[in-house]
Amino acid sequence: MTLLSAYGQQEPKEDMALTHVGPGKPMGELMRRYWQPVCLSEELADLPRRIRILCEDLVVFRDLSGNIGCLALHCAHRGTSLEYGRIETGGIRCCFHGWLYDTQGQCVEMPCEAPGIAERMNIHQPGYPVQEHGGLVFIYMGPPDRQPLLPLYDIIDPTFWENAELRGMRLWEDHSIGFVRDCNWLQHYENVVDPYHLQILHNMISGDQFGSAVTSGDWPDIAFEETNIGVRYRSARDLPNGNHIVRYTECILPNLFMVANIHEKGDVPKDKEKCREISWCVPVDDEHIFGISIVAWPLKNGEPDPDWKAGVDTLTNIRPGNLRDRPYEEKQRWPDDMEAQESQRAIAVHELENLAHSDRGIVLLRRALRKAVLDVEEGRDPLNIVRDETANKAIETHGWTSVTTISERSEAVA
Ligand code: FES
Ligand SMILES: [Fe+2]
Questions:
Q1: In the structure, which protein residues have their CB atom closer than 6 angstroms to any atom of ligand 1?
Q2: What's residue 410's pLDDT?
Q3: Which residue's CA is minimally distant from atom 1 of ligand 1?
Q4: Which residues of the chain have pLDDT under 70?
Q5: So what's the pLDDT on residue 408?
Q6: Are 265 and 203 found together in one domain?
Q7: Which residues contact 102 (CB under 8 A, 6 or more apart)?
Q8: Per the structure, how many domains does the chain have?
């Protein structure tokens, strides 16, 4: 065997078309065609909130009349950040010279100027449209004449559930879903259609991190497929308890996903139990992301059920491996998603990869994203752009878990 010397090897550039999200970049323009979540509704209280999304710095606030605005961060007067502004009934007032902007960005007061000057100068702070849904605040950063509807996927359509409350949730960086990553968005998104790493990273390398039927035992049968809204995998296995489990996990283009319950024990039969959490993998810029979710939380006596198992797991069963601040040696001995994804480089270099059969989900996902990018470039609406109000109801998603006895095993696939 001859060693392949690393001497003189040059690193190619990353795949800009899929990874760069700034204005004018192919993926940046694709992402801007969809409503993107920026924070929880409850996070807009008496102070403005500075945000960075798709390489743009913005401020989001709810004025004292209850209206929400999302404006460029730097005041149109002389650039002071509006994160230090004061929230008032009529908008946000810049701390420096008191220009007051309403939620549409119109400057309506200039207290240092003579009466009538604000009207005459007619200053507009640029910004983006805002809407709230399911406890999250969404903005639309794309071309105004292409603004779509927020697609009402079934699990975030309040009419879909008989007894549930939609809750916006951000579970901070110490949790697997409410994640923050210091790497390119695609590295986390691809992880959703990479079921093989569950068995290796989350079981063989770092011990059984889920303590469930998801990784215990032999390799599951795994298959990938495109859906009408994205890409999903199917994972199925016989369990030692005599049951058979089938899990479907789906990426919904461009940056949403739903993961079948990773805590499923497989002891109680269930037929296509729907995922109750949908998450967005939101690019902050090319090298940072955050995650935010809407959870359809079951109600008990009209109140969110405190005993709901998946929900309690979501809130409390924090894997130690998801903590950002833990000793380096511990990270080396028990690496987790954060270590695996961030160490692919700040932006993984696709040209250096050697994709194998188990990467089929990644291949399908990149292909679907590339097609969506091309659609935008060629003037077509990409996948999951919804404009028809009447069709915007309980759009079917395809993430769920079934548990049957092995003898009754059915191969239901949709
Ligand atoms: S910099 Fe904002 S009012 Fe002067
Ligand atoms: Fe993982």
A1: 75, 77-80, 94, 96-99
A2: 56
A3: 78
A4: 171-179, 309-322, 409-414
A5: 73
A6: yes
A7: 63, 67, 69, 90, 91, 108
A8: 2
